[in-house]
Amino acid sequence: MAEDRLSVIFAALADPTRRGILARLAEGDATVSELAEPFAISLPAISRHLKVLEHAGLITRSRSAQWRSSSLNPEPLREATAWMERYRQFWDANFDRLDAHLRRVQAQTERKDR
Q1: Measuring CA to CA, how many Å separate 88 from each of 5, 55, 92?
Q2: Which residues are paired to 60 by β-bridges?
Q3: Do residues 7 and 56 touch, judged by C-beta distance below 8 A?
Q4: Which pTM value belongs to this model?
Q5: Which residues contact 55 (CB under 8 A, 6 or more apart)?
Q6: What is the pLDDT of residues 4-60, one digit of tens each?
Q7: At a CB cut-off of 8 Å and minimum separation 6, what does 5 contact?
Q8: Pick from 16, 17, 73, 71: nearest CA to 45
């Protein structure tokens, strides 16, 4: 069965450590050691997180001499955001209708209280 790209992206984003890594990479490229600094986990564990992020297309990794650097790839984040945007619009419309309804009820209550 083929993997659903959006599911892979959201699965990668589900972990707080991976989200922290992405936040760090939003500031610029970093090595595995630099990415591991704020976390109380081993370098191999960070490497496993990086593999998940790379598989989801959220990062790219390059090698220069003995250093392996990671970079943020924002395109999958755009895909996830575009998917969520449809639902944000849905909820915004529902909240707008609810707000209008509550204003009508409040206005009716104020008229009755006069």
Answers
A1: 21, 27, 6
A2: 71
A3: no
A4: 0.76
A5: 8, 12
A6: 999 999 999 999 999 999 999 999 999 999 999 999 999 999 999 999 999 999 999
A7: 57, 76, 79
A8: 17
